[in-house]
Write a structure and sequence with these properties.
Helix content is 49%, strand content 14%. The protein contains 11 helices and 10 strands. The longest helix is centred in the middle third of the chain and has 37 residues, at 233-269. The chain binds flavin-adenine dinucleotide.
């Protein structure tokens, strides 16, 4: 994180996050990667005791009244422990609670946000279905209005905390005859009868998060657990995409950082042809590229975080968030690729954690919306913005500034 962007309060919070990161036992990190631990509640309990989660929420609900810049900074620091730690830290406190803070009523905040931020309750977010994740509006999970409750039936896949969470934020169709944008609702679902974790995935990386397939079979969801308006799940989905994608991107930087650090130290000490390999430009330029990619990622993240704090135009935010997610995750993957490359064979072994970081970060461009979906959003928003800008004509039109600009017969478009 760039020092000059932080005020005193943020620096203090960063130090608290760093101290917490230092306190996590080495064995816990190894046990998670070996799938010996699923969903480490002790980690979240400790984070809750230290009031590190949800710092941007109002104090009355357990936050610190801080902002998005502070949130990204905390996510970056927690990411240092490993991508899955930041994910577990974020999924309940930064995603699920964000939805309840923005769209829930006071009873829901009291019951579900406060204890979660204290580390006493755990939550998971359920969007993806076995049928597909990219096409969110194709949701097939249904919640039928039965008068006193909703009857929930369906499945969700790859849910971090599927094993371990106490409650779930679930999107389900409540008006199957209506168009998708007007027929999905969002529910807070307790782990009660009819909620089962069916399948625990064998993952390439990011292990230990309890990623499971969840089955909801005739689950009675009380009416009080509808979040926001009936059939207006889209409003929640839209605001959730900010923590989902901005937070994911910020934590990717933190997760990639140790690989670049380790590679810097290694290449300074390791010798070949009688000299440190960092003296070869083929090596030091790769490290330079990696450092540049991490700092460029920080620039993108913190300017986007600032834009969210300033509440600039929602459509532009949508594009900035998607750009941040795509740019940062791909840049960090490249940075880790360089780190591993300059370490030669030893980088490919578990003598150093670089191989684990490499495996973990492969997920970054897949989850919370694939990077292809990010490109789709960027393109959509950009074309709309382009034509809107054309109408205002506040900037000079450079198209006529070409020697043959008037050659109308050459400007053929179809
Ligand atoms: C370890 C892990 C943890 C996860 N945690 C959670 C979680 O906690 N909660 C949750 O809800 N989900 C979670 N996910 C799910 C994740 O968000 C989805 O896997 C992701 O959104 C992609 O969905 P999919 O796997 O169904 O792929 P699909 O949607 O089937 O996509 C397959 C491929 O097709 C491409 N594609 C699809 N549509 C288009 C298009 N229109 N244009 C171009 N390309 C397209 C995709 O980019 C992708 O490359 C997790 C996944 C993993 C692996």
């Amino acid at each position: 994180m760039f020092e000059y962007l932080l005020n005193k309060e943020q620096k203090k919070l960063r130090q608290e996050a760093r101290d917490f990161v230092k306190s996590i036992p080495r064995q816990m990190i190894l046990d998670m990667d070996a799938d010996r631990i699923q969903f480490p509640k002790t980690f979240l309990r400790e984070a809750g005791k230290l009031n590190l989660m949800g710092c941007r929420y109002p104090v009355e609900w357990g936050g610190r009244n801080m902002d998005w810049v502070s949130t990204c900074m905390v996510m970056e620091e927690i990411g240092m422990l490993g991508y899955i730690f930041a994910c577990i830290f974020g999924v309940g406190a930064e995603l699920v609670c964000d939805a309840i803070i923005l769209h829930g009523n006071d009873e829901q905040k009291e019951k579900y946000v406060k204890p979660l931020l204290k580390g006493e309750l755990f939550a998971a977010e359920c969007l993806t279905e076995p049928r597909g994740g990219s096409d969110f509006f194709g949701t097939t999970t249904v919640a039928e209005d039965k008068g006193e409750y909703f009857l929930l039936n369906g499945q969700k896949r790859f849910i971090v905390g599927g094993e371990g969470a106490d409650y779930f934020l679930v999107y389900a169709r409540t008006d199957p005859d209506n168009e998708p944008h007007k027929s999905i609702s969002c529910f807070i679902v307790d782990r009660t009868d009819g909620v089962r974790s069916e399948y625990l995935y064998g993952l390439m990386g990011c292990r230990g998060g309890g990623a499971a397939r969840l089955v909801f079979e005739d689950v009675k969801v009380p009416k009080a657990n509808l979040l926001g308006e009936l059939n207006q799940g889209i409003a929640i989905f839209n605001t959730m995409m900010i923590p989902e994608r901005l937070g994911t991107a910020a934590m990717t930087i933190g997760a990639a950082n140790p690989a670049v650090d380790i590679a810097t130290g290694y290449t300074s000490k390791r010798k070949a042809f009688g000299q440190p390999i960092a003296d070869f430009q083929g090596v030091s330029f790769q490290v330079a590229e990696a450092v540049m990619l991490l700092d460029a990622s920080r620039s993108v993240i913190y300017s986007t975080a600032r834009a969210v704090d300033e509440q600039i135009d929602g459509k532009q935010i949508r594009r900035m968030i998607s750009q941040s997610k795509k740019f940062v995750t791909e840049s960090c993957q490249k940075a880790v690729h360089h780190a591993l490359q300059v370490m030669g064979g030893i980088g490919y072994t578990n003598i150093y954690p670089v191989e684990r970081i490499f495996r973990d970060l492969r997920l970054a461009s897949i989850w919370t919306g694939t990077n292809e979906v990010m490109s789709m959003i960027i393109a959509n928003e950009w074309y709309k913005e382009y034509w809107a800008n054309k109408k205002t004509e506040t900037i000079r039109d450079m198209e006529p500034v070409a020697a043959e600009a008037g050659a109308k017969d050459e400007k053929i478009f179809e």
